[in-house]
Amino acid sequence: MKLSICIPVYNGADTICPLMENLDSTFSNIEKEVVLVNDGSRDNSAEVCKDLCKKYDYVKFINLRRNFGEHNAVMCALNYCTGDYAVIIDDDLQNPPEEIFKLLNEIEKGYDVVYSKYHVKKHHWFRNFGSKVNDIFATWLIGKPKNLYLCSFKIINRAMIDELKKYKGPFPYIDGLLLRATNNVSSVFVEHKARTQGKSNYTLGKLLNLWLSMFINFSIKPMRFITITGLTISFISVVMALFFIVEKILNPQTVPGWTTIIVLLLFFGGLQSTFLGIIGEYIGKNYLDQNNTPQWVVKETFGV
């Protein structure tokens, strides 16, 4: 059994070395490879990863030309890994490497994917809030089981690795790809540590991009929501029209209110703009996909 440990690196110069030292000692008796993908870091992460390739002969390093996003970097790592199982773990040391054994023991029971879950999450409150919102939308949009927590720290088997590699679109969402390919999924509790160095790279913009990827690329439910909302508004408009006609017949002296008209105009104008925006997202991302926008572009590789 060969284990691939895939690590997307972004501004992780201070944490990637301690993480590698921990991985090396924890898995000294297991055939392994570590695939580091530098996702356009602004610090000297690339130089640190190159040094790690020289120090450990089982390390592969892929340096991307710019920042493509965490999920794109993970897809890149999966395309380069050769193990029977692939563990995806962040570079921030919040997930202790020894917890990988819990994921490994669970997936060897025959599961395709095993997610980690936490008794206590020690992320910043903003990221916890974002994860909660993401969990709600994932349940609605991509059919995620309600009792399953989608975590970046997970393990997948070779069949799922090969399935993920078939996706060539520029906007991958790893959990969406996994859940549309299999329902043979499990999860286990693992320890989660507080961040000791640096700060989270998750921003509001990145969370919004993640939600849009889930919205637009892996579900047509937003379009169905638009259709249902449009039909509902049309029905309400017909009912209101009949009401006003009857009101006018019974009370000819009634004068329509100017405020009501303005409020309705603003409401429906905003609604139309929102719907056009959602439709535009679908069209725009489809255009970028058809235009062969790359998932990632490799600048250089080491140990590959």
UniProtKB/TrEMBL annotation:
The chain crosses the membrane at residues 225-246, 258-279. SUPFAM superfamilies: Nucleotide-diphospho-sugar transferases. InterPro entries: Glyco_trans_2-like, Glycosyltransferase_2, Nucleotide-diphossugar_trans. Gene3D superfamilies: Spore Coat Polysaccharide Biosynthesis Protein SpsA, Chain A (3.90.550.10). It comes from the Bacteria. One of its GO terms (biological process) is lipopolysaccharide biosynthetic process. The keyword tRNA-binding does not apply. Residues 4-133 form the Glycosyltransferase 2-like domain. GO terms for molecular function: undecaprenyl-phosphate 4-deoxy-4-formamido-L-arabinose transferase activity. One of its GO terms (cellular component) is plasma membrane. It holds the Pfam family Glycos_transf_2. Keywords: Cell membrane, Glycosyltransferase, Lipopolysaccharide biosynthesis, Membrane, Transferase, Transmembrane, Transmembrane helix. The keyword Transmembrane applies. This is Glycosyl transferase family 2. It comes from Treponema succinifaciens (strain ATCC 33096 / DSM 2489 / 6091).
